[in-house]
Write a structure and sequence with these properties.
Blueprint: E1 4-9, H1 18-26, E2 37-45, E3 48-56, H2 65-68, E4 75-77, E5 83-85, H3 95-99, E6 106-107, E7 113-114, H4 120-124, H5 130-134, E8 140-144, H6 151-158, E9 162-163, E10 175-178, E11 191-192
Parallel strand pairs: 1-10
Antiparallel strand pairs: 1-8, 2-3, 2-11, 4-5, 6-7, 9-10
């Protein structure tokens, strides 16, 4: 069985935001709204600063809290783990927006909730998500966690560290950060944007 996931190697991410632009263009995201965002963390005291870029999108959680709160069944999970929203069933009530522990949903200007879909339409055509294909440094890897030969599993094994955002939520996210310098806690953070 397939379990889709994505990694982001923060050692390789330049913060160029090409992935954000590619996502918006590929998915015709309205101006001023985003399925993907950049979080920049800077630690230290000048001139001894360290910076890390983390691109965030829907984490396609294995135990997604947004699914059970949806009163119409518009939010659902596919057999391969992708969390989706059916715009035809969505009333825009925002229950799923509130339930998302990562704040990665927004109300589309047409009244339904939108978010990252791992570019499911591209996967169906045998292509990678737009953000992965566009990344100039190869910081993103997308693949099947259940296929030992998939490059995503190699990336996870070879990383110095593997982390997820807010693991205490119990959501079991499938967006993994590789080689992060910082913990998820605020203790070291100087600035986050």
């Amino acid at each position: 069985m397939t379990r889709w996931a994505m990694t982001l190697d923060v050692d390789l991410c330049l913060g160029c935001e090409a992935c954000i632009v590619a996502c918006s263009a590929e998915n015709e995201v309205p101006v001023g709204q985003f399925r993907t965002r950049m979080r920049t963390t800077t630690v230290g005291t000048f001139p001894n600063l360290r910076t890390e870029f983390r691109v965030e999108s829907c984490f396609h959680c294995a135990d997604a809290p947004c699914i059970d709160v949806c009163p119409t069944g518009a939010t659902y999970q596919t057999a391969d783990g992708i969390v989706l929203v059916d715009p035809a069933k969505c009333t825009g009530c925002k229950a799923c927006v509130t339930a998302c522990p990562y704040g990665m949903r927004y109300v589309h200007r047409d009244g339904w909730v939108d978010k990252c879909t791992f570019c499911e339409h591209r996967l169906a055509a045998g292509r990678q998500p737009a953000c992965v294909q566009t990344c100039p440094t190869g910081a993103r890897v997308f693949g099947d966690l259940d296929d030992e030969a998939d490059p995503i599993n190699d990336a996870l094994v070879k990383a110095r560290s593997v982390s997820v955002v807010n693991p205490d939520t119990g959501a079991n996210p499938h967006l993994f950060y590789l080689n992060s310098q910082f913990t998820n806690g605020p203790s070291e953070r100087l600035e986050t944007t």
